[in-house]
Amino acid sequence: MATIDELDKLADDELLERIGKAAAASLDKTDNPDTLGLAGGDLRNLGQRIYHRLSRELHQLVCGSEVADVEQRSKLTKVLSLDPTQMTTGLTAALVVYLGADPVVATIVAVLMVKRIVLPAGSELCKFWGEQLS
Predict the structure, then answer these.
(1) Is-contact 87 62, C-beta < 8 A?
(2) How far, in Å, CA of 127 to CA of 111, rounded?
(3) Tens digit of pLDDT per residue, the chain (134 long)?
(4) Measured between alpha carbons, how far is residue 33 from residues 37, 130, 133 in Å?
(5) Where are the domains of the chain?
(6) 3-state DSSP: the chain helix, strand, coil percent, rounded to 5?
């Protein structure tokens, strides 16, 4: 598994493909996504779908108004004020603990979320994130 710093240097398409590969590998214990009949474009599309699903669910936790999510929302708000590496680590943990994501998938998704959503949005995070999901 690549480090957060190594993943942060990759293009978005490469990260999406890695999400797809990691998800496919978690289904196929041989760690060979080819056995599931998935190739580069399919893996990227799978990664894109997984990324959007997890992003939507995490957005609901961070920016939603469900009373049941108050404790998680408070913890995640603190995570989003950290430096980018710590933020990525915290989002990875949240994806695994709160949403049940595979740890490898969660790490790559968190890197992509920080690059695409959190850093560009600044103080307008929830509004910007919601627009990206539309």
Answers:
(1) no
(2) 20
(3) 789 999 999 999 999 999 998 888 877 555 555 545 556 578 889 899 999 999 999 988 888 888 888 888 888 888 888 899 999 999 999 999 989 999 999 999 999 999 998 888 877 888 888 898 88
(4) 7, 32, 28
(5) 4-133
(6) 80, 0, 20
